[in-house]
Write a structure and sequence with these properties.
Phosphorylase Kinase, domain 1, 2 domains, Aminoglycoside 3'-phosphotransferase, Chain: A, domain 2, five-stranded antiparallel β-sheet
Length: 312
């Protein structure tokens, strides 16, 4: 994962954090500052016992953080898990050219390192059900999240081609799965969605769902994009089905098989090429790619919608 991460365009250390706090939040400047993580987009520092700072490390990340700062506060109160709802929105300054946030510290570990227990399917479904409400007309849209699968054809075809060139026997299954997703009906509804709900952005504590972080890709789109997380957060087929059934209770069923196939194609083609996130076995992803998910590729006669494959 580190080998693919874009290079930071600005160095961020404890001294930078200290200057920003002194300028905007002197009441917090005396708290202990500890660097705890660096992802593709942000560097995270723990501030005291109960707070954290998120600072973009490159210009595209600044735009994602602005998106999170604007829209997450409108949704946080209705969600059933802890989220990094901004407590302070920092402004660009000569010492740091991007916006930044002070957010609550959420205790937990990434599900990629400490997976969710199978009995957490109900809680994940409840979270998704509360998130996937109608989005306003001015909600952000994405060209890579929640969009029709057909718009991602070139991206996926290139990945399947890489799998074929590597000599994997999985490529025919991947092509069939992709075509199945393309043939699915378009989404019946457009809702809010997290957009990047993979195991590194889901926090657990002793196997329980503790929080959901990294909301920069929050947008309106096909909710099947988020529903596909059932296949990366849980390994039991019955558990995955419980997530989908619980999330879609009382609503039209949009996007289950195509979300599964599309998202698994993204994960499967990537990890068949050797990129394996922490906390997940390589054989888990290879098996998903070879099978197109767990169980038969077509699991119901109901109409399904298409879902956008997340960008890699």
């Amino acid at each position: 994962m580190d080998a693919q991460r874009p290079k930071a365009e600005i160095e961020i250390d404890e001294a930078v954090v200290g200057r920003l706090l002194a300028e905007e939040r002197p009441d917090l400047a005396s708290l202990r500052v500890e660097r705890v993580g660096e992802g593709w987009d942000n560097v995270t520092f723990r501030l005291g016992d109960g707070l954290a700072l998120r600072l973009p490390r490159r210009p595209p990340a600044a735009e994602l953080l602005r998106n999170e700062q604007r829209w997450l506060p409108k949704l946080a109160a209705r969600l059933s898990v802890a989220v990094p709802d901004p407590l302070h929105i920092g402004q660009p300054a000569p010492s740091f050219p991007f916006p930044w946030s002070i957010v609550p510290w959420i205790h937990g570990s990434p599900a990629a390192d400490e997976p969710l227990a199978e009995d957490q399917a109900t809680r994940v479904a409840r979270f998704l059900r509360r998130l996937h409400g109608p989005a306003p007309d001015d909600a952000p849209r994405s060209s890579v999240r929640g969009c029709p699968l057909r718009e991602r054809t070139n991206f996926i075809v290139d990945r399947i081609g890489a799998v074929e060139r590597a000599g994997s026997p999985a490529s025919p299954t991947l092509r069939r799965g992709w075509q199945y997703g393309l043939d699915a009906l378009p989404a019946r509804e457009t809702t809010w969605l997290h957009g990047d709900l993979h195991p590194h952005n889901v926090l657990t504590a002793n196997g329980s769902l503790a929080g959901v972080i990294d909301w920069g890709d929050l947008c309106a789109g096909d909710p099947a994009t988020d529903l596909a997380s059932a296949w990366t957060l849980f390994e039991g087929e019955g558990t995955r089905r419980s997530v989908l059934d619980g999330c879609l209770r009382g609503r039209c069923r949009s996007g289950q098989p195509s979300a599964r196939v599309g998202r698994v194609l993204r994960v499967g083609t990537r990890h068949l090429r050797g990129h394996v996130p922490r906390g997940r076995r390589p054989d888990h992803y290879r098996a998903l790619a070879r099978r197109g998910g767990s169980g038969p590729m077509r699991s119901s006669a109901e109409p399904w919608s298409s879902a956008c494959v997340q960008r890699g």
